């Protein structure tokens, strides 16, 4: 944090800064807080939200030059349109202070227009501006092979246990003393720190378990942490089994909270799978995706072809291949395999009329499916199923699909 603020206080600004570090190490939070506190002119753009470069350009201009500026861009602007408009606006409003452009989840820039990343790294040629790229990925995997200006590299290390304790304790509950909350965080970290250091996960776990922690307070005094500990221990142990296996990731949970704040409680929590309402065919798509992620591709014939002829059971069950696919985690699969399995599992039901593709992209947006391997644009897109076994079993029950019968691991 100090490093960053020193950088910003310096007279001569860097053309670009590349900030990298694991998830939830405060990259976005620290940058945002600094720029706001120092009252510097800045634009932050999340590359995830920019489905087109046009949107990205528009957001940069809007934040830096106000609401009229974006109208100077053409309908689907190219990089050179952006540069032209940016230049024009700089002449009109020359920068007294360095302007900052923060591009969050910057690894996605690599999949946009080829020249985009090199151009942003040289933007200072136009204006007194610093471009800050935030990413989980190291710069070496980032650098375009055509070469480009090198940014200043800055690493955000993982938070230490003490730092986590401090940050998490700030969330204290209004009806309880900060000391009690801090004691609870201490217990929580004692249990989870060895398996989970992700601030988002830990925050979620804290929110989930605090009410259980204070339950005995009617009979027990606040200071009697031993009794409180005895009461909470079994709950934390149970929660331990499901760290990272939750139906909803902490990122979704965070977004959900933000949305709930915005809509003043109009939307209810996504946190229990009972509340995830998917369209009928999307459920089958998700089931198909789960099967594609956890069954070896060579077994598809056996499961999904009605008349697959004789495939020797011994061959089929290569059980020396003992490792459970569930332990190995979901494997990526191509779209055509997903569709083949999908049509096979819905077959007896009415054929879908709704657009299958738009439902797939909705599942990706909901983070129930992940798109992978986007680096390789020559290849067709690949996906991975991102839901837990419990979740998919619950979904398949709602459409009376006997999931276990189709899973290789459970044969
Ligand atoms: N120093 C901090 N003080 C208070 N809250 C923090 C701090 N650092 C991170 N957080 C909170 O933790 C969560 C994750 O932080 P942040 O989004 O900044 O991580 P990130 O490094 O950008 O992660 P990602 O790579 O996933 O984008 C946010 O809700 C943020 O508000
Ligand atoms: Mg971030």
UniProtKB/TrEMBL annotation:
Pfam families: AAA_16, ORC5_C, ORC5_lid. The keyword ATP-binding applies. Its main location: nucleus. Residues 181-246 form the ORC5 lid domain. GO terms for cellular component: nuclear origin of replication recognition complex. Residues 13-132 form the Orc1-like AAA ATPase domain. Keywords: ATP-binding, DNA replication, Nucleotide-binding, Nucleus. Component of the origin recognition complex (ORC) that binds origins of replication. DNA-binding is ATP-dependent. The specific DNA sequences that define origins of replication have not been identified yet. ORC is required to assemble the pre-replication complex necessary to initiate DNA replication. This is Origin recognition complex subunit 5.
